[in-house]
Each structure stands twice: as structure tokens, then as C-alpha cells.
Description:
Bound molecules: 1-deoxynojirimycin
CATH topology of the domain at 479-544: Immunoglobulin-like
Structural class: alpha/beta
Amino acid sequence: MTQQTNRHHATGAPADAADATAPGATQWWRDAVIYQVYPRSFADGNGDGMGDLPGIRTRLPYLKDLGVDAVWLSPFYSSPQADAGYDVADYRVIDPAFGTLADAEAVIRDAHGLGLRVIVDVVPNHCSDQHAWFRQALEEGPGSTLRDRFHFRKGRGENGELPPNDWESVFGGPAWTRVADGEWYLHLFAPEQPDFNWDSPAVQDEFRSILRFWLDLGVDGFRIDVAHGLVKAPGLPDMGRTDQLKLLGNQVLPFFDQDGVHQIYRSWRKVLDEYAGERIGVAEAWTPSADRTALYLRPDELHQAFNFHYLGTGWDAAALRAAIDDSLDAMRPVGAPTTWVLSNHDVVRHTTRLGGDVRRARAAALLMLALPGSAYVYQGEELGLPEVTDLPDEVRQDPAFFRGDGQDGLRDGCRVPIPWSGDTAPYGFGTGGSWLPQPPEWARLSVAAQTGDPASMLELYRTALRLRRSHPGLGAGDEVEWLDAPEGVLAFRRPGGFVCTVNTTPEPVRAPAHAGWRPLLSSGELRTVDDELILPADTAVWWEA
Ligand code: NOJ
């Protein structure tokens, strides 16, 4: 056991977290609210315009006060930043832009001191083309041991001038790039992100070792990037068509959601279980169905997966109800909690996605936080930040923006740094500007501007999270009891005398039968007309009932 392991076991677990080994220990992650910090855009400690670990450290009390249970940090590892850190050059080294290993340890220690768990990203599908193994693979040439850790192949065509198969990159263009000696290598994302070959025992061993490195440092779990992509179909067969990613929602692809990935997560689970303190694995798994996602969450695999099905559901009561039921039904056979996600660093912020009206975003937050399972909050959603849709081309950094034909390439609009305080940019984000420009309207959306304003989004989140904590049944279990409600309205009961109603229509409606119900929290103003309680348009209400 290393010195770090010893130290971790002594002080690693959050101050007010239950010991998993204690009798009756709770599985903290089942109903946890997990806040995603996107390090480059959260808080800048050294005034270089880029967020960093010291910045995050100073803002941990804000997260504690907000009322979340855990923090997920997107990558801060050594990286040329070809894909905002999802191109990792060294998994055990902090990128100088974000700080040092001591800074990472300090974040983990301080978070634990505040009772917050810490989840870090692990990126196992691919690394950076600057990773030592890939550089060495290029040097050693065809047939070398190091090339076997990636997918190197000869090209097709008379002189090998065509890619080895027809696979397309998620970011657009072919998923293959040719190197100087004529071989091609596979990259499902940018050319700067070569895919690992997970048939290689060296790759398997290396990642178990990387997991242990961070577990020894005290992290409470991992968000697993592209968890569905690690294993490719034997022989790398052609797809025989273009627009391949459009199929992802319907079928297993030769490069996504192959059954072989599960073996990897079984071996990772064993590593997680070696550690005290209920360390978890969270899959970023894009699969054809909730049932296929559930396979990643069998008892000997991972703990949670992002619910992208829910994220993709529009503001429509029937569709939301179906998505909620489907999600809960799919997880029941494997005994895993469902998760609820509205936004992250890859999608249009939901304030904008749901119609640009903050009312819907407010109602969506109360709906999400009333459901059983674990909820993810993406930094800035608690401020009601909209997507920034008018970033000038010259500041954009999303690699897909430069390649086209793949993902829309517009992910910078949800990554604009957070406004903390003040009337002028960078609004307390740091002292040296911000790597993406913040809109002038964000002065009124800052943490300082919203704090203490009962009508603000921030205070809505704070109150909702406080109530969620004081109603321990709210996130627990997997039962939602639907109540009769007019068309376009959701009404459901949760344990502990709690009801949530959501009017998704653009018109006010009479509240469903509510004799004896007492409003606890509402995302919009409730009115009484002729002794009838009226739910305004696009409004959710929590009731004690
Ligand atoms: C998913 C991450 O969330 C995204 O930001 C990244 O570009 C891809 N995986 C590739 O790592």
C-alpha cells in the first residue's frame, strides 16, 4: 500500500459521509445531486483567463451552500487541449493551465472537509496524440508493440491511400488519419485523439493503474468518457453507409455499445470495490435504448449512467411522463438508480433548448429534483444561464467547429465562464478576462446579483436542494405514483407526503385536486381565482400532501 493510500484511508472520506462498511450504510450515490464543474470555465485563480483548480477550491463553499452532494470535475489532466482536455497526454499529471497535483489534492481534501464527494473524469477510449505511448508508436513504426496499443492498419486502395474502413469521426470526416510511414490510425473523435486498442493487456493494466492512482488520492468515483466506445467489432467491419452516428439511437454500431465493453467495467468494479467509501463509476454511454444502458449498471459493473434519453425529451407532459416511466422501468431489473440530466458541456443549455424562456427551465429544475434517483446539475444552470449563440468564429475552440459534417461544432456556447459578481466582465470569474467572452446581460445573472433575491433561479435551486435534503424520501427508491391531471399537466406523488405538479402548457390551468395540499415551493407565482388555485403556464409546484 502506498503512503498516499494510507493517508487517504485515514482522512479521505467526506466529513459527513457515511462509512460504506458501517452496518446500514447508505449508498450515497443513489439519490445524490452531482454538480458538474467544467474547470476552464468555473473560476480562475491565477488571472490567466482560464479557470483552474485553485479557482475551484475557493468556490467549494458556494457549492456546499448550494446544497449539492458531490462535484464532478471535467478533465484537468496534462493535455494539448485539442478537445478541451478530453485529449489526455498524461493521466497522472495536471495540466499547468489548471494547476498542480498538490492543487488537485487540496480540492479533494477541502471538498471532503465540506462533506462534498469528488468525481473525476477518466478518458479511456482515446488519449492525445502527444501521449508518450502514441508518440513512441509513431517512432517505432509498423508492427511494433506500441502500435498494438492503438488501432493502426494499412490503408485500402492500390497504394494504401484509402482509409482502412468507412467509419466516420464523431467530429466529422473519416475516423482515420494516415501517418508518414503510410499506416492509418483510428480516431473516433479528432485526429489528435487516437483510440486505444482495448484488446491490448497493456492498455487494460494501465487504466486499472490510473484508476488506482486517483482512488489513492481520495476521489469518490469516475465519470467515464465515451464508456460505450472502448471495444470495436472484430475485424473493424465497414458500416456501408454515411451519417453513421444518426443510427446510434437505433442500433449497436461496430464502434459503439459492443457487448465486449462490459468485461472492462466488471474489472473496473473490482478495483472500485477494493476501496472503502463507496467509490462509483458513472457511464457516459450513448446506447440505442434505456435497456442497453442498464446493461452497464448490472450489479458487478458501474453505478450510474447519464440519462440522455431524458435530456433529449422536449417540454411536453406526455413525452416527459413516458421518458420518466421508461427510465425507471429500464433500471429496475438491474437495481440501479436512474439519473436525471438537463444540461452538460456538450449540449445547448436547457434554458435555451426548452424555448429560451427561463420559466420552463425553472419548472424543469423542480421536476428533475422531485424524481427518484440521482440528478446532475451543470455549472451555471442554477443561474439560469442561456446558451451563448453569437460567439465570434475566431474565439471558438470546439474541434467539431473546424471539421464540419459531424457534431454541430457549437459546444463553446454552453462553456462560457460563470459570472460570479460585479457589473463588468469577467464578472468575478478571475482578474484576467475570460477565455470566451461573456455577454453583457450576464451582470444580472451573477451569483452575487441573484443571491438573496427570492425570485432568482439561484434561490430556487438553493431552496429546492434544501427541501430535497429535508425530505429524504424524495430521491429514494424508484416509484412515481401518477395522479389524475388535465392534459399537458404532470402530477405525481412521492413518499413522505410530497406531490409535484407541472403545467407544461402555455396556458394557466386549474391545479389538480389539491384539497389539503400545501404549496412548498413553486417555480412561478400561484394565483387563486374563485377559490380555485391556478397553475401558471410552464410552472412546477411542490406540495406537502
Ligand atoms: C464526451 C465528452 O463529454 C466530450 O466533451 C468529448 O468531446 C468527447 N467525449 C470525446 O472525448
